[in-house]
Amino acid sequence: MTSRTTIKTDALARLDHMPWTRFHTLLTVALGVGWTLDSFETNIIGSVFGTIKALWHLDAAQSSLAVSVWVLGILVGAVAFGYLADRFGRKRLFLATLLWYAAFSVATIFAWDYHSFLVFRALTALAVGGEYSAVTATMGEFIPRRNRGRTDALILSGFPLGAVLSAIVSYYALNLLPPDIAWRVGFGLGTTMALIFFWIRRVIPESPRWLLQQGRVTEAEAIVDEIAAYAKGAGIGAATEAQKRYQPTAIVPAHPTFWRNVSELVGRYRGPCGLASALNFSQAVVVYGVLSLMALVILPYMKVPAAAMPIYYIYGNVAALLGGLLASCVLESWGRRASLFTSYTFTVLAILAVYFAQTLPSMVFGYCLIQFGVTWGYISAYVVSSEILPTRLRASGLGVSVAFGRVGAMITPLLLTSAFSTTGTPSAPLLMLLALALPGPIAAAIWWVKGRETRNISLEEGSDDALTDATPQQSFRTREA
């Protein structure tokens, strides 16, 4: 049910024009670690599963089931926790998902057999899916609009950082510890980091934008005042800027139900939701597809021993981290649409580079180019998606897009390994990966032509969010003095 009582506040304009403070730095670190942990947990299994497979004598079908359970858990968690973040608030959910992750990651350490391992992995995956929705919805809602793209990109760059950490940890654990201890140590380190950063996340307040959706004006304005107070330590100019007042904006609070969110996502916001879903599908296809190709096709085909494989993942993940850092620059300097189209096109061309490669060094170099491009691409995609979906269903829409991506993640490894088993060479699966990745650059090209550039404008204007006293057909415009 939606209230039609209009409220007025300048809180949104103050947030958008706030100087950078220590609070924003703390927020960036606290949310970025969530992506680091998600990536650590997602990638650690690829490095240690060979050990688990040998210890528990698993066959190929059981190995595939472990991956499917993980991806399915993320899919369900993204949709469920995405709606809950819109319904009950950002803070509750990004704390709950981190605690949930820690609890079931601990349980995974003590898994006594294959079946208990599957159950704990599935439950951990729910939290990882929730992080995708809750963190990406929250990250831009506090950040000043001139810094939003760069900051969101730095937060999302936690994913390749987590992948680098997982590869390093698994390499040393597998080479220095007994097999039955090594894989448990890997999962245990992720749990330790989660508990440390849960403490840091506790100090992040509820999103003022979400509070205004609920009609809780006094709470939202108090939080904006608290953020402004951090500016005193940055100097007189920053403190004065933080206290500046703007002409109040009229807002109509909204409390939509799950089915109302669904109705809006497939109705009025089907364009933004469709774009986000196509981009997420494409990037998940590439991320999971190239990992499968490296682990199951390319490195074994080139006679690389299993113990040496983590080294090549480190190379790729360092390249991915560089792609994230590039995204943090070009999202502001080039704009969102240019970054989105260029990154997805670059990724497709990088897949072609691997297709034509003949030697292990050239294939690894092409793999690094793919990791560089797809990281640049999915960071651009998450930033754009979070800016073109309205606050009242931002987390829900992001959850739906993540769900579409996980569908791609589930089907791609199966299709690629099937193509390899039929032909016996990497060429056929690489061409299939290229075809599956095409929805991304196609959607980015359409958005380049028809979409709105959201650089340095308010989230409400970027999403055309009609939550003011305007009619639903009118665009939102922040009215400043």
Automatic annotation (TrEMBL):
PROSITE patterns: MFS (PS50850), SUGAR_TRANSPORT_1 (PS00216). It holds the Pfam family Sugar_tr. Residues 470-481 have a biased composition (Polar residues). GO terms for cellular component: plasma membrane. Keywords: Membrane, Transmembrane, Transmembrane helix. GO terms for molecular function: carboxylic acid transmembrane transporter activity. Residues 27-455 form the Major facilitator superfamily (MFS) profile domain. The keyword Transmembrane helix applies. It is a multi-pass membrane protein. The chain crosses the membrane at residues 20-37, 65-85, 92-112, 118-142, 154-175, 181-200, 278-299, 311-331, 338-358, 364-384, 396-416, 428-449. Residues 460-481 are annotated as: Disordered. SUPFAM superfamilies: MFS general substrate transporter. It is found in: Membrane. The keyword Transcription does not apply. It comes from the Bacteria. Signal peptide: none annotated. This is MFS family permease. It comes from Paraburkholderia atlantica.
